[in-house]
Every structure is written in structure tokens, then in C-alpha cells.
Design brief:
Bound molecules: tryptophan, zinc ion
Number of helices: 26
Structural class: alpha+beta
Radius of gyration: 28 Å
Length: about 850
Amino acid sequence: MRTEDAPDQTPTRLADYRPPAWEVERVSLVFDLAPSATRVRTTIRFRRTGDADELVLDGRKLTLVSAEVDGTDAMERIETHREGLALKGPLPDAFTWTCETEIDPESNTELEGLYLSKGMFCTQCEAEGFRKITYYPDRPDVMTIYDVRIEADVATCPVLLSNGNLVASGDLPGGRHFAEWHDPHPKPSYLFALVAGDLVSADDRFRTASGRDVELKVYVRPGDEGKCAYALDALKRSMRWDEDAYGCEYDLDLFMIVAVDDFNMGAMENKGLNIFNSKYVLASPETATDRDYELIESIIAHEYFHNWTGNRITCRDWFQLCLKEGLTVFRDQQFSAEERSEAVQRIQDVQQLRSRQFREDAGPLAHPVRPEEYIEINNFYTATVYEKGAEVIRMLHTLIGPEAYRKGTDLYFERHDGQACTIEDWIKVFEDATGRDLGQFGLWYRQAGTPRVHMQGEWEEVDGVYTLTLRQEIPETPGQSNKGPHVVPMAVGMLGPDGEEILPTTVLEMTKETQTFRFSSLPAEPVLSVNRGFSAPVLVEREVSDKERAFLLAHDTDPFARWEAGRAYAIDIALRVIGGAPVPDDWTAALGNLLAEETLDPAFKAMALDAPGADEMAAEIHRRGDLVDPDAVDRGLRAMRVALGTSLADSLGTTYQSMAVAGTYTPDAESAAKRALANRCLMLLAEASPVGIALAEQQFERADNMTMSLPALRALVHNEAPGAEAALARFHDVWHGDSLVIDKWLALQASAPGTGTLAGVEALTGHPSFDWTNPNNFRSLVGVFAMANPTGFHATDGAGYRFFADWLIRLDKLNPQTTARMAGAFESWKRYTDDRQTLIRAEMTRIAEVPDLSRNTREIVERMLAA
Ligand code: TRP
Ligand code: ZN
């Protein structure tokens, strides 16, 4: 029997959730590994918990070789059933199911289930990949203990790994060997993992708070062992932090990380055996940038933190995904804020939230943090579930305070350890810990759309009274209208005329649609600072003059609000400049003052000097009711950057010199901040004058680390410097064997502005260094072109859209997950001018008409078209 893939577009609904009819008491898996014909023998002890007589198991692309019930052949009693099989009754209340399936890892290009990456066997089971390995109740509320035996060739697979602890290993005849693993912690199937290949490990140890020794191993391909030190260091710091901040201690004697080159996402938290995209493990000063180090640190932390928030306490069903993801993102953000600069971390997190989640929430793919319906669950690993999910927890933290929050999480771990839970369980622990009713707060999980908070202040000079009226409005989103008011924690502060703080940060708790707050006995008319620390994930709408923005940029005592003032100021200016106005001197002067401030963190300066991005402006223009012409946006933003680079040339030059970091490269936040500011100065100078280009040439020549080398190359290429082609070629000569560095080389060219880019990108798709079947490579070239090259992608002849659609259609046959994710580049198509909308609609329709388009891509494209 063979279950074929029948792309089924029927939605799954939260309202239809039913507990499993059979529980699994124990499972054992025996893998006989071979690239194109792997045999999996599965033994499952089932016990009836519901009243169903038949047993339904999930399965996809499996060949069933044999099946038995309590040792008796059961092939005759099996029928195919949707995505799997049904074993017909009558069945006893408890029985042992045994089956053997054959699978073909070599031809598995979806990178889901068991597949091969550069000769190495590896698995990816979240969300529903385990069913591509064997027949199983592949749902997160079925948790059990796993025993795994792996058999493989010694020569090609000297290392054999699975979850838990190694209990036996040895040689077999015919050049084969085996390893047996036992995981004592009950887990759902999506956390199962297996790795087999020619690997080496970088090792370390960690002693837990209660004094247990844990062996740490980072497995990589031979030759990469020198690039694991930072990952190991980040892991140890994460383990310590989780003990201190949440009282969570690691629970096995071994913790393993494996780096693989072909991976659909960032990383995966499989119990005791995390599997990572090699991009988020491997680092050396020569090959990784400061940003890469930062991402490695936060993703290592994220996956490690899942051990408690995700693995020991998991999700009842996939609608509850934010239960583990929103919480774990919030935890990794807290960790990074404590390990580095809190202000810088917050600004970066908000920038990311705005560029990805606000965009999603304002378009056809908008959905609540906890969706109520999906067609393909892989399409719901979104910015909304992850990033907005984290913001919701941050608001809870703000509303109840850190002590009550810790009381709540302690109760969560105590009450729900070993369970598969819901958002209701999560909210209840905080209600019980604080005695507070969080019913209305729960709306944040159910209502999609970014709330807009309109603010109006009034000053009564004679009494020294300031009244602030807030009104919240939640926009309609697909399938949702007429929404109730949220609980909005709005942190505000006030500054006096000389910049002194006259009202320290105060959290206003909004619960109604309209609410007025009164502040009395104020010594002078205040300058209001709002949404400090970005206390709520909302859009604030309020009339603010340029003068007030400049004042806040100079004086706000809340670093986030200070940065935000500068951002809003730049956006206001950009709107006018895009409309044809000149760049005002006041703006460049305000940034000049900031640059001159001696005590300010260079990382903050680097961010404040960053002019708004094209996508940010497109969102803003559309929000104001206009359609976007990306060419006009590009011209306007360029004019702003050139004005900065010209009028501040002297101070940018001296800052550049003073930010030089001497000695050998270290990835610490302090030196990274200096490099960030130096590179910001370089980019502004290079765009404005030949002197800047000469500086970039010099930096490219002298750089001994990727953080300095790559921006210099970007400055040359993006400004079409005479030496750009030669520099690109040299860079390629040095790095052509390193696919992670080649990703940077591809991305840099794909994002280059200028009319020739599409032709260049098309040529690169035929370059020997480009492997389109590798997700990192594909994203770096095709994805970056669509997401980060607005003038090329949105060219009015439609060639950019056509190129992108062609490649999506091509990749969909191999890898639906990555294709669907990337198709989201079209999600904000309604922002653009009519001619562009017509062209995009035609391309999306062309994709939708592909006969055997995957369920993943079909869902995304059809939702976008329905807008
Ligand atoms: N759970 C993983 C995380 O957040 C992400 C994940 C979900 C994933 N599905 C995946 C990773 C598929 C790789 C492939 O860390
Ligand atoms: Zn996660």
C-alpha cells in the first residue's frame, strides 16, 4: 500500500478539536538507513481513551510493507484514510501495533520528514513531518517515551544520533553499525529527531544549578569544528540564564546541536538534539558578521529555552502554536536584552515587528496570534504568531509586573509540566497568581489587526493640568470586523522645556474605546513622550510638530522613545521629500547634534542615523491612503541620505576614524557597536561623494573580518563604484567554497539598486556558486531580490514580478514550505500603483493556475488574491 500526496485544501478548525481516541503508551522505532530505501520498523503500544473503534493513523508518501496487531498480520484490515490509514475494528482496549514502512530520503526535497543534506541523514518533524517517516497519530497532544535504534553504514554514517541518551552501540556485519537511544521524557512526535552522517563535534560541559553535569556537543561537518566556539558559549550562557530568570534547569545528561546546510527555517528544538540551519551555528571572524553572531546567540537561546516552553510543556494542537513560540521569543528577547544593550535590543525587536508583523497584520494574510482556522499549518509559523505573540506576553509582564509574572510562570511549570496545553491554561496561571481577571486581555490572542491609538492632549496653563484623550480603533481584517477594545498598557512620560523629566514613565491602562487621563500640578507645559519602550504593539496617531520631534530626539529620557522620535521625524521629512520638497537643514542638523553627543552609545547613533527604509515608507504612504511608486520613494530616500552624507561629511569622517577597533576581532556588543557606527558613516559618505568611495575601497582592502569587509563591498557595489566588479570577483575568489559567505555575496548583488540588477540576478541564477535547491541560496538571491530590491522588483515592465513568479513555480515542485513562505513577498501588493497591481495580480493568477501547485503555496496565493 502506498499513500500518495493528495493536496487537500480543506481547512482545519479549532472548533473541531477532539481529544485523541487512542493514547500511546510507548513507541519504538528501528531505522535501517539507506539513501533511497530506508526501512522503518515501528512498534506502538496503544490504549483506548475514547469510544472510536477503528484506529486512524497519519501517513504521507509512505510505502507500507507490513502491519500487525498483537503479532497477527493486519494488512487486510487496513484502508487508506485521508492523509494516512484506518485500521478497522474490532480492536481490544490495549494492543501492540507493528508496521514496517519504506521511505526514500534521497528524493525528499521538501526537507520535511527524513531527508539527506550533503550526504547526511537528518529529520525535520515539526509540524507534521513525522507522518512522512511512519504511520502515527501525528498530533502534539499524543506524548510518549521513545526508544530508537539506528542502523547504517559505518563508512558514510559514522555518527548516529537521536533524542535522549545513548544506551547501546556496536558493529554489525557487512560494514554496518548501530546505536540505540532512549529518551525518558514523554514527547510529541514533532520533537523526534534523527541524524546520521560523517560529523565531528565541538564539546563542552555545563554544571546545572543543582550540580548535575551536562555534556554539550555541537556536531558539524569535518572542517567546520573551528567555527563552533561561539555557539557553545551562547548555549552555556542560555542555560545559566534560564535557571536564574525562570528557574528552569536542563533535564538530560546530554545536549546536542547539529548544523545542517539544507534547512527550511532557522532551527528546531527537538528534545536533546536541536537541529540548526548551519547559518545560525557556524561563525568565525572572517566569515560571520556581528549581526550573524547576534543571531546565533539569540537562536541558540531560543531553541534551548524551548526545552521547558515547548517540549516539557507543549501545545495541545497547532492553533496553540503561540503558546510555545510567542513565549519563547519573549524569553530570547529578554535574554538578549540582558546579555547586550536593553535599548538597542528593544529598538531592533520593534523594527523587526513593524517591518514583518505590522505588514502582515495590514494585508491579506492577517490572522490572530491564535488563529482559528488553517489549511496548511506550515503557513502559520508567522511574524504574528512569533513576534506579536511575544509582544502580548511583554504586555502581560508590563501590566502585572515582574514579580507577579514570575509567580505565574512558576505556577505554569508546576501545574502543566508534561502536558499539552492551551492559551487558556497559560492565561489562567496568571489569573490565579494575581487574582486578576484577564478575560479582556485574552482578546489580544483572538483579534487580528494592529490597533491604532489616537491621542489628543490639552494644556490648561492656569491650573497646570494636562488632559490626554486616547481612542483605540482596531481595523477590519480578513474574516473579522467589529472588534472589542483591547487592554492597552500605554507607557507615557513628560519632559519640561529644558528636557528635564517632569513625569517619569507611567503606565496608563486603557480598557475602553475612549479614555481620558488627567495630569495635574504640572510646573510647565509638558512635551509628551508616548509608548515608551514600545509598551503596546500599536500605531500611535498624534499631531506632533518637527520641532517637538527634534526636541524629543535630543532629550527623551526613554531610549526607545528617543529613537522613535527620530524615526517619526525622518518619516515625516521623507514623506515631504518623496513629494518633491528639499531636505530641511533642521533635520540634518538634529542628527549632527546627536552624532556629536559624546556619551551616547555608538550602536544607538548608528540606528538613529539610518534613514527610513523603502518598505517602511511604502507602509506609511499606504496607511495615509495613497498608492506607492517605489521609484519616487527610492529617489526621496536617496536624497535624504545624500543630504546627510554631504552636510555632515566632516563629522561622519571623524566619527568613522574614531570608531576604528584595534586588535583582533571579538564579537562583543561594545566593539560591534563601534563597527556598526563606523559602517553607517561609511555608507552615508560613500553614497554622497568620491571621497567616501575611496574610503570604502580602503576598508575593503584592509578588512580582516567580515563585519568590515561586507559593508565596504556593499558600498562599492550599491554605488556602482568603478572598482565594484573587480571587488565582487575577488570576494568570490576568496569565498567560493563557503556557501554561507556566498549567500552574502548573492544577497548583496540581489539588493543592488539600479536598472541592470534584474539582468545581473538572472545571470547569477546560472552561476556555479548558486544552488537553487538550497533554501539559504535561494532566499539570498531570489528572496532578497523580491524583498529588498524595491526598484528592481517593482519595475513597471513587470519583469521583476515575472522572474520571481517563474522561480516560485519552479521551487514549488521541490520545496513547498520555502516557496509558500517566499510567496509572501507579494502580500503588500495593494500598496502599489494600479499598473503594478495589475501586473502582480497576473503573476499570482499564473501561479494559482499551476495544476499541481502545493497546498502550501496555493493557500498563500489564494489568500493574497482574495484581498
Ligand atoms: N519550532 C521552530 C522554532 O521556532 C521552528 C520550526 C517550525 C521549524 N517548523 C519548522 C524549523 C520547520 C524548521 C523547519 O524554533
Ligand atoms: Zn521557536
